[in-house]
Design a protein that fits this description.
With 473 residues, this protein is α+β, with helices and mostly antiparallel strands. The protein is 51% helix and 19% strand. α1 runs antiparallel to α4, α4 runs parallel beside α5 and α5 runs antiparallel to α6. The radius of gyration is 50 Å and the shape is rod-shaped. 20% of the residues are buried. It catalyses: ATP + protein L-histidine = ADP + protein N-phospho-L-histidine. One of its GO terms (molecular function) is phosphorelay sensor kinase activity.
């Protein structure tokens, strides 16, 4: 399982768990909060009505009072209301009045007159000067049928002579409770979705940073000259990337020096041995011909050593670079023409063909690209027999240009194909049997890589084809 997916799943489980717990906690508080608010309103209502009925109750005129008539009219009243989308076509408030013994004297519903309510909690506690309230199921088998009762005392002076109770069914508040719970769950689902999107974005952002570091490590392991990645708003990953970059430079520097010392030592052994042998022979009495031959050998080997050192220094400089210096748009055909003109004295033994060059440009350093083209053309000329054909073409390849150089001649041996771009590896030239420094193709590959391109060398029917690919400007 990918690292980013693990982070996202962990974040998802955490957010989902917290969301469910929060929604349950808030949801569990909705119903009690609504009922508490209702009870507060019923307290004021009960006390207001107790004051309103007090004079008629004490005078014994309760049944014929305007209050009793108002209650009957209230019970039959249609509010014709629409409260937040909930239609109200009836009233729910029920009023009962009991005497000092708890007997019901008045019931707005007309159902409990004459019944003994003295043991009901609301009446019992109110007659004793306490706050009386209760919640009772209208249907014992239905938990949603509860009715809230709140009582207030009817006084004659300081004496409690009766109790007025107002009742309201809790199911009358259920539509509002359900609506609130629905809004809560919808808001919770929306917040959860937003949280998951943020989590997905965070996981992608973190995973992308780690992926960039991984790709950087792989590219470094493959020897590619990649830049140290930089991360916006992530100081830790930036610091880690810089540490990896510093480690790369130190390790590459150590390995680079060791590799070059070994390679240079190996390559210089042969010319140094030849120079030493020639120098020892020069100490003897030699005729003029032999003396000149050994002096010429020393000069040739010295020049070869100088060429190896120069190539190595240039290759080391290129491989240490991470970017181009002052690149410019260059016409690839124009560069090829310039190199062909410079190599004209060496190309007379073969036939050079090419079609008109395209007008497309590549971005790069003129000196380096000319050197890469020169190395490829020189290599092709060295392996083209007298009278052989050398064909050059420039074509578009994807988002870049491809310079292909085909030379007639012998095929590259299979054992040599994977080693062509190794430093100091070279094949004997057909004409002379001598080898080159073995650094030309390695230098050309370094130039191509620095320009964001690539180079290949492979057998083709009747000869060998080199392909240099460079991105368009």
């Amino acid at each position: 399982m990918r690292f980013s997916l693990r982070i996202f799943l962990g974040y998802f489980l955490l957010v989902a768990l917290l969301a469910v717990l929060l929604l349950r906690l808030v949801g569990d508080e909705i119903k009690p909060a609504v009922r508490q608010s209702t009870e507060e309103v019923l307290i004021d209502t009960a006390n207001l009505l107790a004051e309103a009925v007090q004079a008629d109750f004490v005078a014994g005129q309760l049944s014929d009072s305007r209050f009793a008539a108002a209650l009957q009219a209230f019970a039959a009243r249609d509010p014709e209301a629409n409260v937040w989308g909930v239609k109200r076509d009836r009233t729910f408030l029920r009023v009962t009045i009991t005497d000092a013994k708890g007997l019901v004297l008045l019931d707005s519903a007309g159902q409990a007159v004459g019944q003994d309510y003295s043991q009901w909690r609301d009446v019992y506690r109110t007659l004793r000067g306490q706050y009386g309230a209760r919640s009772t199921r209208a249907d014992p088998n239905d938990e949603l049928s509860t009715v809230m009762h709140v009582a207030a005392p009817i006084r004659d002076g300081n004496k409690i002579v009766g109790v007025l109770t107002v009742a309201r069914p809790n199911w009358a508040m259920q539509p509002y409770i359900e609506r609130s719970e629905g809004k809560l769950w919808r808001a919770g689902a929306l917040l959860l979705a937003v949280g998951l999107l943020l989590g997905a974005g965070f996981s992608w952002w973190l995973s992308r940073g780690i992926t960039k570091l991984t790709d950087f490590a792989h590219d470094v392991g493959a020897g590619k000259p990649v830049a140290v990645p930089h991360f916006v708003a992530n100081r830790e990953l930036t610091t880690l990337a810089q540490a990896l970059g510093e480690m790369r430079e130190k390790l590459e520097g150590k390995a680079y020096v060791e590799n070059y010392v070994h390679a240079l030592t190996h390559e210089l052994k042969s010319p140094l041995a030849g120079i030493r042998a020639s120098a020892e022979l020069l100490d003897e009495d030699l005729d003029a011909t032999d003396h000149a031959r050994f002096v010429g050998h020393i000069c040739t080997e010295t020049a070869r050593m100088q060429q190896i050192v120069d190539y190595l220094l240039q290759l080391a400089t290129l491989e240490a670079r991470r970017s181009l210096h002052e690149p410019q748009a260059l016409a690839l055909g124009e560069l090829v023409d310039g190199v062909l003109q410079a190599l004209a004295p060496q190309s007379g033994h073969c036939v050079i063909e090419h079609a008109p060059w395209p007008d497309d440009h590549v971005m790069g350093e003129r000196f380096l690209l000319e050197q890469a083209i020169r190395n490829l053309l020189q290599n092709a000329l060295d392996f083209t027999p007298a009278g052989g054909r050398l064909h050059i073409a420039i074509t578009q390849a994807g988002n870049g240009l491809e310079l292909s150089i085909f030379n007639e001649g012998e095929a590259i041996p299979d054992y040599a194909l994977p080693r062509l771009f190794e430093r100091f590896y070279s094949l004997p030239r057909p004409a002379t049997g001598q080898k080159s420094t073995g650094l030309g193709l390695a230098l050309t590959q370094a130039i191509a890589t620095l320009h964001g391109g690539s180079i290949t060398l492979a057998n083709s029917p009747g000869g060998v084809t080199a392909r240099l690919r460079l991105p368009l400007a």
